[in-house]
Automatic annotation (TrEMBL):
Pathway: Nitrogen metabolism; nitrate reduction (denitrification); dinitrogen from nitrate: step 2/4
InterPro entries per record: Cu-oxidase-like_N, Cu-oxidase_2nd, Cu-oxidase_C, Cu-oxidase_fam, Cu_oxidase_Cu_BS, Cupredoxin, NO2-reductase_Cu
Residues that, per the record, bind Cu cation: 63, 68, 106
Location of the Plastocyanin-like domain: 22-131, 166-246, 331-435
A single BP term in Gene Ontology: cell division
UniProt lineage: Bacteria, Bacillati, Actinomycetota, Actinomycetes, Micrococcales
GO-annotated molecular function: copper ion binding; nitrite reductase (NO-forming) activity
Name of the protein: Copper-containing nitrite reductase
Top enzyme category: oxidoreductase
Highest taxon of source: Bacteria
Keywords: Capsid protein, Cell cycle, Cell division, Copper, FAD, Flavoprotein, Metal-binding, Nitrate assimilation, Oxidoreductase, Periplasm, Repeat, Virion
Amino acid sequence: LASKAGRLRVRLTAAGGRVRLGDRDASALTFNGGIPGPTLRLKAGDRLSVRLRNELQDPTNLHVHGLHVSPEGSGDNPFVMVEPGDAFDYEYELPADHPPGVYWYHPHHHGTVADQVAGGLFGAIIVEDPEPIEAARERLLLISDVSLDGSGQIADVSPMARMLGREGDLVLVNGRLTPRLAARPGERERWRVVNACVSRYLRLRLDGARLQLIGIDSGRFSSPRDVDEVLLAPGNRADLLVTTTAGTASLRAAPYDRGDAGGMMGGGSPGTLSGAVLLATLAVEGEAVPALPEVSAQPAPRDLRSAPVTARRELTFAMGMGAGMGGGMMSFTINGREFDAGRVDTTAAEGSVEEWTLVNDSPMDHPVHLHVWPMQLIEVNGREVEAVPRQDVVNVPARSRVRVRIAFDRFTGRSVYHCHILDHEDNGMMGVIEVR
Ligand code: C2O
Ligand code: CU
Ligand code: CU
């Protein structure tokens, strides 16, 4: 669905339904009957109107992950609650200089986010490039994972899996199992990949083709970089160029160890290894096409490494034994507190640049996400890193300290930051920020 004359109006209906997932018939959750939901194509400066209808059994709402839009009122407001049977009209206005890239949408009603996203409620948003990058074709790959039981229902999730972050045993690309893609030798393709998994990390490798990274989330390098692999934490997106050579290339996720519960679960804690998976194959045959010229430099966004910092804060992400939960259940906190929608945890001044130190005081990685205002990764464990200038999910490895900078520009209002292992978010690892 693409905008016309600066405007896109869509109706999204969240409902249960029968769909084909991989090689199975499944009962899942869908936007407009499909998994993924419709792709929304916008341009900077556009206005997007979404009427969200809730035909689920539980409350829901909508979040436009990564878009730089107002968090207030009927904008990207995570505090809206749409009851079953109700509808809500969202209005999003993209600034005229909104960064191009791939974004996504999913529900954000605290307590049911992991179940609803794992159930199938997600879709992509593309903000087009002002100057198109030349490619033979563009592919959008939304990667999700789910476990189905014997009758094709979404499988129950154990309390242990909710603590560790669930990983489904079907890993799907646009709802399909290991799709086969076709191309001719020498073609350059544009791939936009979304990690829509609840907890699974994707260490993407493409063997048998040239892989170049244009950017992550809304951030871009000044020119595409040749890479061997790209790590996408849950919620991250990659903007890629793939140049084919004759033969078969395979898109795989290599294993990624995201830690464990460090004995907190009592007895030997199971680990959380995102295992190796074959995601898709690319069959390259036929007559070779002439090579396209290298992609020229992209306009560089503001680099916050040289910006004056007006405030510094430290946010500590921790897992511990929940006192009030009868023991045995883990608590997920930021600076010692679980999420409370009625409390403001952090206030920032509009127009300021802040530096946040994200401390992971636990034996498991936490991918930290901030709505509305992107982060620039500066340093990991005291070592400076060179990263894309704008990311909305930054991984904070187990027992690590990560420094980011954030420009709180353009918008005021309340929003949230949280761990994008959605089970952790639903268990309380989320805070409220107010920008004034
Ligand atoms: Cu993709 Cu607050 O989430
Ligand atoms: Cu988000
Ligand atoms: Cu987490």
